[in-house]
Design a protein that fits this description.
Elements: H1 4-17, E1 21-25, E2 30-34, E3 39-44, E4 60-62, E5 68-72, E6 77-81, E7 87-92, E8 102-103, E9 109-112, E10 117-122, E11 127-133, E12 143-145, E13 148-152, E14 157-162, E15 167-172, E16 187-189, E17 192-196, E18 201-206, E19 212-217, E20 238-245, E21 248-257, E22 263-267, E23 273-277, E24 286-288, E25 291-295, E26 300-305, E27 311-316, E28 322-328, E29 331-336, E30 340-344, E31 350-355, E32 365-367, E33 370-374, E34 379-383
Antiparallel strand pairs: 1-2, 2-31, 3-34, 4-5, 5-6, 6-7, 8-9, 9-10, 10-11, 12-13, 13-14, 14-15, 16-17, 17-18, 18-19, 20-21, 21-22, 22-23, 24-25, 25-26, 26-27, 28-29, 29-30, 30-31, 32-33, 33-34
Length: 384
């Protein structure tokens, strides 16, 4: 990877040679965009100093007339912005944060810090409503329930909380398993929870009680002498209600992906493996209107027609690791770990691309005003 002045010079020269693009600097590094990807605003959410760790936190979005964007940062602050990028509140927490955030129906926003502290934030008043000490940090995003939320911590535990931050139950999975920093979040469907742990266990639990329904070990060999051979769950599980994968029809199946490993399809009823293919993914595939969109860690993006199981199209978009897709304004939006954001049509036509000054490690976040992208340098940008 190219760093520092050499990378910035390279981006500048590239922008000069592409007449269809614009290039600008706003204190957050050189930024390039095509006509189909426009930057609306950028803000620094981490106040990061040279040599500081990369940031991974993700924002929560509150829609409506008084829309809000809430994100915790590496400077141990939770920031609240409006959709124009103006800061409304800055709230102190105990330690830096790398968690996702969740806005609950009662107005509370959930975030966590690297010390394992869980917070309920009031984004209107700009205050901490409550806190709870977890067994370890959660680095994924909380999952909403009608009367509360779930979260999965980095030590393979799952918690259920009420709206006001009271723990209702917890489930402890087996420890161990070499992993990368980020972890997946659970999937909830039909009052059942599905989760994948860093040790390779997939579990199904009752949402109301946390009782175990089934458990399956998905990694038969967990030995990884080097990080390039590490197989780790990073993407969230996805439910496939009905469709063809390959030549087989599936119903109520769970799609589970491993970074540098396989993409697996499990029966939601008992965890039986239905399908396996060697594909490395870092974020959850998207099921939309009868199509399954998969972005891979090798830079490929594909669309599968679930009515037939046929691959409609497949293309190489980047040499980096793709994150996404998400759907906004009838377009598919992706990012890669080399700092690019891409916009495509549902038919796979590339509509635009933008380059940021920093790695992107989380998939974009959809808002009513556009798509949010967060870099490891602490810059949060709204594009559309």
């Amino acid at each position: 990877m190219i760093h520092g002045p050499i990378r910035r010079l390279g981006l500048l020269l590239l922008a000069v040679t592409l007449s269809c693009c614009t290039s600008l600097s706003d204190g957050h590094g050189i930024w390039q965009s095509s006509n189909a990807v426009k930057k609306v605003w950028s803000i620094d959410v981490d106040q990061r100093q040279p040599g500081d760790p990369t940031g991974f936190s993700q924002p929560a979005v509150v829609a409506g007339a008084d829309g809000r964007i809430i994100i915790a940062g590496r400077d141990a602050r939770v920031r609240v912005y409006n959709f124009n990028g103006s800061e409304l509140h800055r709230i102190a927490i105990d330690e830096p944060s790398d968690s996702g955030a969740l806005a609950l129906p009662n107005g509370t926003v959930i975030v966590g810090d690297v010390g394992g502290q869980l917070y309920g934030i009031d984004p209107v008043e700009g205050s901490v409503l409550w806190r709870y000490q977890l067994s370890s940090p959660f680095l994924s995003h909380p999952v909403p329930l009608p009367d509360g939320f779930l979260l999965q911590t980095s030590d393979n535990r799952i918690y259920r909380f009420s709206m006001d931050g009271k723990k209702q139950w917890s489930y402890s999975g087996s420890g161990g398993g070499l992993r990368i920093y980020l972890t997946p979040s659970p999937l909830v469907a039909d009052d059942v929870l599905y989760a994948v742990f860093t040790n390779g266990d997939a579990v199904s639990l009752k949402v109301d009680s946390g009782d175990l329904l089934w458990r399956r070990q998905l990694l038969l060999n967990m030995d990884a002498p080097v990080l390039s051979e590490l197989r780790s769950p990073v993407s969230d599980p996805v439910m496939l209600r009905e469709g063809y994968i390959g030549i087989d029809k599936v119903e109520d199946a769970i799609l589970v992906g491993f970074y540098q490993g396989n993409l697996l399809l499990l029966s939601a009823g008992d965890g039986t493996q239905l399908f396996a293919k060697e594909i490395s993914i870092k974020s959850a595939p998207l099921v939309d209107n009868g199509h399954l969109y998969i972005a891979t860690a090798s830079g490929e993006f594909m669309s599968i027609d679930l009515a037939s199981g046929a691959t409609q199209w497949k293309q190489k978009l980047t040499d980096g690791e793709l994150l996404g897709p998400v759907l906004w304004n009838d377009s598919l939006w992706l990012a890669d770990d080399r700092g690019s954001v891409l916009r495509l049509s549902r038919d796979g036509e590339k509509l635009g691309e933008a380059a940021f000054g920093g790695r992107i490690e989380r998939k974009p976040t959809v808002t009513p005003a556009g798509v949010l992208v967060r870099t490891g340098l602490g810059v949060l940008t709204l594009v559309r």
